[in-house]
Amino acid sequence: MSLPTDASPPGVAVHMRLASLNAVCLLNRFAPVALTVALVASAAAAWAAPKAAEIFPAETVGFAAAEDAVDLGERWERTQAGRFTSDPTMKPFVDQVRRRMSGQLGSLEQRLGVTIDDFRNVATGEVAVGVVKSNVKNQRGTLAALVDATGRDAEAKSLLSSIDKRLTQRGAKRSTAGELTIYVLPEDKQADLTERTAAVFHQGGYVGVTESQQVAADLLTRLRGQKSGEVLANVAAYKETQARARKAAGRSETHLSWYLAPFEYQAATRDAITEGVLPDKKDTLAILAEQGFDAITGIGGLVSVATSPERDFVHHTFVFAPPKPGTAGKPADQRYEGGMRMLELPNSAERLSADSPPVEPWAPRQVATYKTLHVDVENVFEHLPSTFDAFAGYKGAFENVLTGLEKDPYGPKINVKRDILPYFGTRAVVMTDYTLPIDPKCERYLLVIDVKDEAALREPIDRWLYSDGAEQKEIEGVPYWEMVPEDQALGHDDLDPLAPLGEPVQPVQGEREERVLQRAAVCLHQGRLAIASDADFLRQAVFGVSAGESLSHSPDMRATIGALADIAPGDRCVWTFTRSDEAFRPTYQLVREGKMPKSQTFFGRLLNRMMTTEEQREVGAEREQKVQGDRLPSFELARRYFGPSARSVRSEDDGWLISGVVLSKAPEGDRPAASVAQNQR
Predict the structure, then answer these.
(1) Which among 35, 56, 426 is positioned nearest to 234, based on CA atoms?
(2) Which region among 381-385, 610-614, 640-644, 653-657 has the lowest average model confidence (pLDDT)?
(3) pTM (global) more than 0.70
(4) Residue 444: which of 431, 457, 455 has the closest Cα?
């Protein structure tokens, strides 16, 4: 069996990829909703009107709202992200990504005849966009938008006229029902849209656009102050996520709120499933639900935008996973069921400080990302089997792996639970960087895990690596093992953190596909197990760097960690530091060179997932690059828009609190001299 070359002992890799799967895929799919709200801006005064959460129905499973769209729009323009999207030289890249993100949700213009610019032109106060789940099995949910256009009656009427023109030109049949205008649009095979409905109204200063006559009627009723079913504001998961985010934000001003019922949202935004199709296949969503991850009933939070010259964004998010009755305060293996019991992430009292960041002395200053996490590895291992088996496609898959490691005559003959796991600590550090020149496989990584008993762990690790075909070498007298390219299979970990949640999971058969990481260098030294993408990166963990070259002395690191300590005091199980410019640089450069479809970096794979069509995905075809990369400016001009960021996660009895900050990287002339120092890489 191969050692997982993505730097993870058995179990930890699967655990981390499950976390990535939930966070990256679900929030990536929700991004168009939040983006729609964030980009709406105009100029006028708002009035005290009902909050959209008290108007949208309880069946809303994805929701984003700006209480004052005008203010949010002005603040957005002051951020580096706003400047990036407004820069004419970045327009080809920004427009392409924006169009693709809209396509992930289902184009507002295609479905409802309305655009983001339309909202900009009429909004004077609150703007909200949501997805309302259907009560009909396997039916796609309803997209709904509500815009406060008080004081802009003329603009609102012009918008309704534009919507009418667009929809009737597509053959829509128009009718009225009280104050509602109803459009029934014919099937559009070219856009892959079935027959559908659009319902529009202008009432009490609000413009509403939905895909359902009933949803529109209910919104109208509530706008009049009358009761019509339960509302989102009273949903327990919504209330809890917003309350916890508000508590974390304290008295800070916030500008954007959002909410996601992850499993229900995923089901509501998938294409309709025909009854009986692929009865023997389960998608990732179904497997995760069966494994207890549907205990996560809501994810939501608050975002502050441009509250100071130094801080572009501050966000607080709560992942709500209420425990079983009577288990509050108990370990995860008692609070939850199935694979969800793996998520035991112990908090650490490790202090964050700008003066003395808790960074390993051997961490070099030029890294792109740096993460510290605490995980109960033995608990992960204990509750991994059922989830592993579910993704492998047959019962006993995990046990077969362990049996092979222990009893295969050509294997290492180790008992993982007895010979390896007891000697791992609960703390790990992960760093990423890249090599020059930039190419599709330039990203590199380093994982360092604390070890309780180095002597006891050395012999089984050596046996495992030797049996796997690794070659033993030395770095200045320190032994290490190197995995060569032909042994690049990721072994036990077959989960792709970027696989769409609705995509059927296929049991692993035959040869494995080429994976992201091609090599691994492994070293057990001074109480740490270090696993790196290459020997050069490994050398830094073994021998360290000079004080002047340490990450802990970098001004941008200190400023960012200081800001994180300010917004998220207390214990935490995870904290991260990211130089957004360095993390994004490989992706940007590959786009410029027309090599983006071949990218194997994390951001590259994420972007490729977004831009690959379903047809291409089904046949395994490589997508064509649609952005004219040669029209983009050099990265040295673009990097000024990407400031450093930091994030922390704290485990709580009923979920996890995630807080983060993105600092501005504006030129000194654009902000006070006391602002954060620029990246000194």
Answers:
(1) 56
(2) 610-614
(3) yes
(4) 431
